# Entry
Amino acid sequence: MSKKMPVWDLSEYYKGVDDPNIEKDIKKYQKLAVEFNKKYKGNVAKLETKEFLEAFKCMEKLRNISSKLGGFAYLNSTTDMLNEKATALYQKVEECISEAATNLVFWSLEYNKLSAKKQDELIKALPKYAPYLNRVKKYKKYELSEEVEQILLQKDITSGSAWVRFYEESMARLEYEVDGKKYNDAEISKLCTSKDEKIRHKAGREVNRVVKENAFMISYCYNMIMKDKAIDDDKRGFKLPMSSRNLAEEVSDETVECLANTVRDNYKNIAWRFYKIKAKLMGKKKIHYWDRNAPLNIEDDKEYKWKDSVKIVLDAYKEFSPKLYNVAKDFFENDWIDVAPKKGKRSGAFCSSPLVEGHPFLMLNYVGQKRDVLTLAHELGHGCHHQLRRKNGVLNERSRMTTEEVASVFGEMLVFQSMLKKAKTNDEKISLLVMKINDMINTAIRQIAFHFFEKRAHDERKQGEVSAERLSEIWVEEMKESLGPDVVIDDSVDYLWGSIGHFFFLPFYVYAYSFADCVVNSLYWLKMQDKVDNFEDKYLELLSKTAIGSYDDIFKPFGLNPKDKDFWQGGLNLIGYYIDELEKLI
# Structure
């Protein structure tokens, strides 16, 4: 793998951690926030339409400054988490923005005291801001007094957010050793999918050993995060630990439960069935947990050079929609991607879009495996999704995780189908199908098992701190139930819950993956059957409205209804279809 891999260029934000413009923008934000407070606090009920418009434009300016500061500090630290200056800047920006933002807390509280008639008149007069205003209104019953809201905002950087930062930076410092060689988090995760069974088992056991060795720190962080969330939920009146997340996603608790229970009902006919097939393909009675994502022996050891992966992904995007391709190619013609793994770099991959009207940045840990090609397709999907909705407006734009994952998973699907179509032998088709079904199960099934782990952990936390040992017991129980009797779950996997970052930095996020996977599967099934006219254009239109449209509105052109249990089952049926195809090839 060539060492000359693309790195992102953040200089369009700031030249570096010592850029004097950082301090200037912090002071500018602080000054504007104070001025906004002095001008509008206590006066929201008296404002005319023209004055509301002026206030919104000022809020957009504030949002852009804070997003630029926070975006740079975060992105700069993720590729160098061992750099104290980078992490110190991140903390400084967080603290300064949080402190200044207390001046803005009054706004939504005063807006929600307006009469329904006044609110409706304002929305009618300023339709551009309707999505934002409607969203503010939904939080009315969960808002507290201005003084309490200010305290919670200020305390967050030393409570919930502080524990998240401590967890992430601590995990970035961990080292793993296999056969005398040391690895970071990103590197060891690649070994866990090695074609060599001995290597991947050693790597897997090493991950579990290191996490277990740090279980006191990890479980303490998790308990503090869960308790911090419980206090906030209790004060605001949320019924369930996941209710606040559901409100942000604009889905009901009942809809999420319907999704989760439908997926759990399919554990046996999807996950159990597939792992039984995979065990046979690997010549085993049962497979180990670390064999789930392992390549088959029939799979080649092809290394995908970066430029080849880019071509594979862009060609697949172009075949689906030239319009989507034109959006996607910009990421490779500019310095918007940080590609290679390195010491101190955060593990995994993500797309970050700090500025609504700007472009996103993609972070990868690319080592040239086939799976890395699909990861590129996934994160590029996120990036294109952002670009298609840049005109929605700064205040209207927000991330609903359930629809955030649609474009990414759909991007993966496009590349997978392209690779499958070009496969020349049965063995190649089998290995591709196994890899894709693995990924779909990880997304649709395993993430729901994660969801049930979170539910149980947060429920038990209400009775007091939950020990690392007890969290491990819950984890093992959920893994066994979801993966089935043909996957060996032993003491080499019992502490892996501690390595799942989503449990820490965004509780109850995980079901969004399953939500999106079922949506994408349903959409792609319609495409395969050619049941929707102008599918490609309607799909791009859907992506452009995910932040401003209701689920009913954005899925209506496809005849889909997420409130219906059959919707979720329909999405899961595509996985079953691929398993059927796999059995035919075998």
About this structure: Residues 36 and 58 are 8 Å apart (CA to CA). The first helix runs from residue 20 to 40. The beta strands are 176-178, 181-183, 287-288, 337-338, 350-352, 361-363, 487-488. The two ends are 33 Å apart (CA to CA).
